[in-house]
Amino acid sequence: MNNPSRYKDPSGHTPCGFAYSDPECPSKKETVRKPGDLWTDPPLKPDDKTLNKVRQLAGNDENLILAWLWLYNTPTGNEQALWIVSNNILMMWGDANQSKCEYGACMITINSSLRPLSGSDVFDQDLETQIQNELVATLAHETYHWVYGTPETGENNSQYEEYMAFFTENQIYFELTGGSLYGFDGYSVMNTAGLGGWFTDYASSYLYYPSYPPYFPLR
To answer: Residue 117: which domain range?
Structure first.
């Protein structure tokens, strides 16, 4: 269960596991990856107002707050993280990765399979670190749709928008780990054959989406 008391101090205390976390929780620090050369160095700390807003948007969920902080500290993800805050986008767990609006609130839902374990539940630290990296990358993917798409309409976007969201996800993952989730070389995505070829190879469930958004010239 989440521990809201950990976030009740308005002085700017941050979740355990980050480079500038509160000193009373060193054990959690050992279960997550510290910022590396591809991160902002030294790590950026958001102001108290921003951090308190992140806590509210994440429902005081430690993993989601930490994911936002990691995104905030990547070169590509910094502006995305601030966009989430300035546009009041909720972050929560769900059955699928989605960007949507319902009941008057707009949100990013992350598949619960990406929720890292903690404490005595961690049986494989490397695996949990990998899950945390994928969580941050997925948060970037879904944020891309909010910045450049129209998820509030509830309509399917285009393959091209999804491709760029996957590209952003991969870039964040690279900045966290130096590795890659997908390949992008050799695909000419500015034509329908090349774009469809990428989705055939990596994400075939999106092949029924239109190739390009309406404002693109016909291909």
So the answer is: 4-206
Residue 167: what are its φ and ψ, rounded to 5°?
Answer: -65, -45
Residue 99, both tokens: 């960007």
Q: Name the helix (H) or strand (E) containing 101.
A: strand 98-102
- Cβ-contact 38, 136 below 8 angstroms: no
53-99: per-residue pLDDT in tens?
999 999 999 999 999 999 999 999 999 999 999 999 999 999 999 99
Per DSSP, what are the bridge partners of residue 106? Answer: 101
Is 52 part of a structural domain of the chain? yes
Q: Is 109 helix (H, G, I), strand (E, B) or coil?
A: strand
Domain count, the chain: 1
In a domain, 218, yes or no: no
Q: Six-digit token pair at 9?
A: 């101090």
Cα(217)–Cα(209) distance, rounded to whole angstroms?
A: 17
Q: What is the pTM of this model?
A: 0.77
217 located within any domain:
no
Dist CA 62 CA 72 (whole Å): 15
User: Is 33 within the bounds of a domain?
Assistant: yes
Mapped onto helix, strand or coil, the DSSP state of residue 139 is helix
Taking residue 60's Cβ as centre, other Cβ atoms within 10 Å add up to 18
Q: Which long-range contacts (CB under 8 A, 24 or more apart) does 161-164 make?
A: 161/213, 162/199, 162/203, 162/206, 162/209, 163/189, 163/195, 163/198, 163/199
In the chain, which ranges are continuous DSSP H helix? Answer: 26-29, 48-57, 62-72, 78-86, 125-148, 159-177, 192-202
